[in-house]
Amino acid sequence: MDAMNIAIVGAGFLGVASAWHLTQIPGARITLFDTKGIGAGASGIAAGLLHPFAGAKATRNWMADESFPETLALLKIASQTIATPVFKQSGIFRPATTLQQHEDFYKRASEYADCSWCETTPSPLFTKPGLFIPAGIQVDCPLYLEGLWKACSKRGAKLIIETINSPSDLSDFDISVFTIGTGFLDLKEVMTPPLSAVKGQLLELCYDDILECGVSSHAYLAQNKHKIITAGATYEHSWQVEGPDIERCEAEIRAKVAAFCPKLADLALHECKAGYRAVTKDKKPFFVEVSPNCYCLGGLGSKGLLYHAWLAKRLFKTLQK
Ligand SMILES: Cc1cc2nc3c(=O)[nH]c(=O)nc-3n(C[C@H](O)[C@H](O)[C@H](O)COP(=O)(O)OP(=O)(O)OC[C@H]3O[C@@H](n4cnc5c(N)ncnc54)[C@H](O)[C@@H]3O)c2cc1C
């Protein structure tokens, strides 16, 4: 069989997962391009919460049953490759801080067997009852990307640090795949569904103890690094400052954390980080075949961990035919 040269542009969750799946195609040679390197976009700073009830009302997410196991499979491959767990399945608790949340979360617990209403909170840190999702996962995102990319490299995939400005830059390749997050807003030559960038900021707070589970209410908490808790995130549709805006982020996130976990709201600041989500109008990811040899995948919004592996597998199935 002739070798098939495949270029993937963008080394976030989607690009690295695509590289992994496409290395399974016999004869495929994978080259991953990124302006800055692995995890340089939103994926490198994501808080790492993964569960099928994301969103304000905790409705079961679109395609969650199909996509969640695909992500879990890649998390295990990454962990095995670097012989270090890149995730913990500690469960995720969704404290209800308003009457509306109480109503929504309570209803969800009555609708689905894989979540339950907790009048007694899983930790005394939390001051509100809420919804507990036992399958919920906290992912160390930089470590996950490191592990998965190592698995890709072992199968011969190569990384090139370069910005791709047009599909014509890749004319030497048989197939090109764009997974460039908010980079689509600058790449006018390829058609994607209308996208907007939503800025997200989070706080890394110093914490000596262990957080028993991930938490997601109007703000969320995750613990993926030693002695650090991540508290996030803002959803900014306009901004004056590019990158971290500590004052704005602290004011918003600390107040939201105080509503369900006052003891952690005033922890000392370690770092403030910012990234940009690529969001479609219907908040669903897109998979566009621009031509038989050019594909665009993206629009993961706030649910990159949930959708990336499933979308990458869909690409694999399409190209395998
Ligand atoms: C603060 C914050 C917290 C989040 N927390 C979570 C969470 O807890 N759980 C969750 O599921 N999701 C979370 N998300 C969402 C998640 O991070 C995104 O959905 C996901 O990272 C998108 O992945 P991606 O691979 O599509 O894009 P990205 O990770 O943004 O990757 C795109 C890559 O393309 C590269 N690139 C762009 N243009 C070009 C070009 N022209 N040439 C070459 N390279 C290019 C960039 O350098 C970048 O590395 C969070 C997002 C933010 C901002």
Written account of the structure:
The protein is of the alpha/beta class and 321 residues long. 28% of the residues lie in helices and 27% in strands. It has seven helices and 17 strands. It has an eight-stranded mixed β-sheet with strand order 6-7-5-12-13-14-11-15, with helices on both faces. A hairpin with a 2-residue loop joins strand 16 and strand 17. The protein is globular.
Bound ligands, each once: flavin-adenine dinucleotide
- Could you spell the SSE succession in H and E letters? EHEEHEEHEEEHEEEEEEHHEEEH
Tally the helices. Answer: 7
The amount of helix comes to: 25-40%
Can you give the mean pLDDT?
A: 96
How many runs of DSSP E, i.e. beta strands? 17
The fraction of residues in strands falls at: 25-35%
Give unreliable regions as ranges.
Answer: none
Radius of gyration, in Å, reads: 20 Å
How would a crystallographer describe the biggest sheet?
8 strands, mixed
Please state how the strands of the largest beta sheet are arranged side by side. Answer: 6-7-5-12-13-14-11-15
Could you say which overall geometry the principal axes of the C-alpha atoms support?
globular
State the distance separating the first and last CA atoms.
14 Å
Alpha-beta content class: alpha/beta
Short description:
The chain is α/β, with parallel strands linked by helices. Helices cover 28% and strands 27% of the residues.
Keywords:
about 325 residues; 6-stranded mixed beta sheet; binds flavin-adenine dinucleotide
In terms of topology, how is this protein built?
Elements: E1 4-9, H1 13-22, E2 28-34, E3 49-50, H2 64-82, E4 87-88, E5 92-95, H3 99-111, E6 116-118, E7 130-133, E8 137-139, H4 141-154, E9 158-161, E10 175-178, E11 195-206, E12 214-216, E13 220-225, E14 228-232, H5 246-258, H6 262-265, E15 269-280, E16 286-291, E17 294-298, H7 304-320
Parallel strand pairs: 1-2, 1-10, 2-9, 5-12, 10-17
Antiparallel strand pairs: 3-8, 4-8, 5-7, 6-7, 11-14, 11-15, 12-13, 13-14, 16-17
This protein binds flavin-adenine dinucleotide.
